[in-house]
Amino acid sequence: MGLELGIAFAFGALVAWGIGDFLIQRTTRKVGDWETLFVVTAFGVLLLSPFVYKDFATLISFEDNTFFILLALSVVILMAALLDFEALRKGKLAVVEPVLALEVPVTAFIAFILIREAIDMLQVFFVALLLIGIVLVSLKSHHLVRKKWLERGVLLAVVGAVFMGAANFLVGFASRITNPLLTNWFLNVFLMLISLFYLMTNRRTRKLVRDFSLNRKLLLTMSVFDNAAWIFIAFAATIIPITIAFAISESYVVISALLGLIVNRELLMHHQKLGIALALSGSVALSIVTI
After folding, report:
1. pLDDT in the model for residue 196
2. d(CA 252, CA 229)
3. Residues whose CB falls within 8 Å of the CB of residue 195, separated by 6 or more in sequence, listed in order
4. Structure confidence by residue, pLDDT tens digits, 131-150
């Protein structure tokens, strides 16, 4: 039953992330990266505080490396989140999302190096298929003869995927040595304080209040799905191997890409559509064979 529960949590993250990233793109374009980051993390702090206050003593005892591991996770995911938000703001959702799937091989590589989670040849094949699809979806044919040959947001997404792959591993590892709720709470507190400091020093707090008032429903809905995804995946990573948990959940790109194509009516060239098909197929197949 334990394995099935872990897989169920991973699929919960899949659905929540698919909808959440679609809403994040709309939110960042309306209110900005830092405002979005503050709202989603502040919501997480309020949501999780009643469940983790009894564990606060473990953070201030400094008897082990828990605090420093959580701090390292927070710094890495801050970079990943900003790059992810900016990529979603500048690029087409259906193009950016498959590129972010690069976090799967990054997570798998780190897990293999640090905790010896191996990847077999069939999994390597599907990772390669995924990467081929990413290259196709990132290119426009008329860009091949110019310097600007990449889709907007793709380069940001690639760098963000590397940081997110590292963050994925740290989320799973930190959740194992503490607990999933405390890991997410600490992460949200750190990101909330950083984003609030940025907004205050740049005199954007009034804008934040105004934007929240005008877009309350969108911001709260986005916050629910994004926080739910991180909670689900943290629990999944404590039950099943980290690589498996994030491989399954990475199939969220299917939902986000379809929402981008259907709701946003984003136009893609034929080879980009082929790239999406290959990238998403590779992600889904990788999830299946990793189980």
Report:
1. 94
2. 10
3. 34, 35, 37, 38, 41
4. 777 667 656 554 454 444 45
Reduced to 3 states, what is the DSSP secondary structure of residue 264? coil
DSSP 85: H
* Range 87-118 burial, b when 16+ CB lie within 10 A, else e: bbbbbbbbbbbbbbbbbbbbbbbbbeeeeebe
CA-nearest of 218, 183, 238 to 70 is 183
Spatial neighbors of 77 by CB under 8 A, at least 6 apart, are: 163, 164, 167, 170, 171, 187, 191
- For residues 228 and 248, give the distance between their C-alpha atoms in angstroms, rounded to a whole number: 16
**Cα–Cα dist 240/172, whole Å:** 10
Return left, alpha or beta for 267; rule: phi > 0 is left, psi -120 to 50 is alpha, else beta. beta
Residue 146: phi, psi to the nearest 5? -130, 170
> Rounded to whole angstroms, how far apart are CA atoms 43 and 39?
6
Rounded Cα–Cα distance for residues 231 and 10 (Å): 10
pLDDT score for 143: 45
Residue 174, both tokens: 């930190």
Which residues of the chain, if any, have pLDDT below 50?
142-143, 145-149
Give the count of beta carbons closer than 10 Å to the beta carbon of residue 159. 16
Determine the Cα–Cα distance for residues 69 and 56; give it in Å rounded to an integer: 15
Nearest Cα to Cα of residue 278 among 127, 151, 107: 127
- pTM for the model stands at 0.81
Interatomic CA distance for residues 199 and 91, integer angstroms: 24
Alpha carbon 245 to chain centroid, angstroms: 13
